[in-house]
Write a structure and sequence with these properties.
CATH architecture of the largest domain: 2-Layer Sandwich
Largest sheet: 5 strands, mixed
Structural class: alpha+beta
Number of domains: 2
CATH superfamily of the largest domain: Ribonuclease H-like superfamily/Ribonuclease H
Distance between the termini: 13 Å
Order of helices and strands: HHHHEEEEEHEHHEHHEEEEH
Strand content: 15-25%
Radius of gyration: 22 Å
């Protein structure tokens, strides 16, 4: 993969910018009709480079997937603005060419996915779906795609987004079962409480503004009922899938990128109440003590680089643990809330060692399942 990246960078090395902090600017999704079209030779080069970067984004660089997802829609009608966006992406790759993807698992019985959607961000007013899945360290699956239909609200965009990614969550469930690992938790995080209620109750939670939504986007309701998946609320500030819906900048970009590439433990983007949310949907036996554990932190500099000798052991695991026990109650109007009782516990921390060998075998199968081998 390093060899392919070097060869790609050499194609346009004279045009690369020396300093870039992110793979794209905030104007990534903007398309100008006045921008001149690329020549036939330059357009073919544009298409070739984008195809190579698409392969790399699936194998070793998921952090560039949002940009590649957009550029793939421009290969048949690329213009000078698209060429500039490609050059910025390649400049970022040149600066981070030594960054390696890290994938690990804290448990093969707990699978977590983040699904988000940006409403009407494209020039034709269509949304963008972003999603990511992890076992604890880095992401084993991610997706950034333009939605195929126009939606009337952000809630509807969220429903369309989860309907597009939910089959992957179910596939992971079935794949692991055939490998001998039965999932205890298959949790999907979302940051839209209205969408979560509609996914739980179906059309019973629809109002006059959402009666038109196609019934096929409510098949998640049956999956929740069958306990194949559960949906939990996650604040927008720590919504990992937000990285795949729009070109983030600054500290938020660096934070999410570190999690996606595996430099920071996935627990840093768990909800602060450890899934015990008022809008929680589905059955979930999540242990809040696990949410507080972070095995290792890696310092990320302001420009996003990862220093090799900057690893430090987190002190969070040494502190006293607070375990939250939540009981859901219903009043006469059918509204739910959580009566949270917090108790101190000093020694209730998971001590059982995970089987790293078997974890790596299964993770390698998951990553290589739908991607050809490098030798081919």
């Amino acid at each position: 993969m390093q060899k392919m990246l070097r060869e790609t960078l050499e194609m346009v090395d004279d045009h690369l910018e020396p300093k870039v902090s992110s793979p794209a600017t905030k104007r990534l999704y903007e398309v100008s009709d006045e921008s001149p079209q690329l020549s036939k030779e330059k357009s073919e080069l544009f298409h070739s480079i984008v195809a190579k970067l698409l392969y790399m984004s699936k194998r070793s660089r998921p952090d560039i997937e949002p940009v590649i997802a957009f550029l793939c829609t421009r290969v048949s009608r690329s213009d000078e603005e698209d060429w500039k966006k490609l050059i910025r992406l390649l400049s970022f790759l040149k600066r981070t060419k030594n960054d390696a993807r890290i994938i690990g698992a804290t448990s093969l019985k707990r699978l977590y996915s983040w699904v988000d959607a940006s409403y009407a961000v494209h020039m034709d007013m269509k949304g963008q779906t972003g999603s990511a899945t992890s076992f604890g360290r880095g992401v084993i699956g991610s997706k950034s795609t333009k939605q195929k239909i126009n939606t009337k609200s952000s809630t509807e965009s969220e429903l369309v987004g989860i309907s597009e990614y939910l089959p992957y969550c179910i596939w992971f469930l079935y794949f692991l079962e055939h490998q001998g690992y039965k999932l205890e938790e298959n949790v999907v995080f979302q940051d839209n409480k209205s969408a979560i209620l509609m996914e739980k109750n179906g059309r019973n939670s629809c109002t006059g503004n959402s009666r038109h939504i196609n019934i096929r986007y409510f098949f998640i309701k049956d999956r929740i009922k069958n306990k194949e998946v559960s949906v939990a609320y996650c604040p927008t500030e720590i919504m990992l899938a937000d990285y795949f819906t729009k070109p983030l900048q600054g500290s938020l970009f660096n934070k999410f990128r570190a999690v996606i590439m595996g430099y920071t433990d996935i627990s840093s983007v768990f909800p602060p109440d450890c899934l015990q949310s008022e809008e929680r949907v589905g059955i979930n036996k999540f242990d809040s003590a696990y949410c507080e554990k972070m095995s290792e932190n890696v310092k990320i500099s302001k420009n996003g680089d990862v220093s090799k000798n900057s690893k430090k052991i987190s002190n969070i695991g040494k502190k006293k643990k607070k375990v939250s026990n939540c009981t859901h109650v219903q009043n006469s109007k059918g509204k739910s809330w959580s009566d949270v009782v917090r108790t101190e516990s000093t020694n209730k921390v998971e001590s059982q060692e995970r089987n790293k060998v078997s974890s790596n075998v299964v993770l390698n199968k998951l990553v290589r399942r739908n991607v050809p081998d490098e030798s081919e």
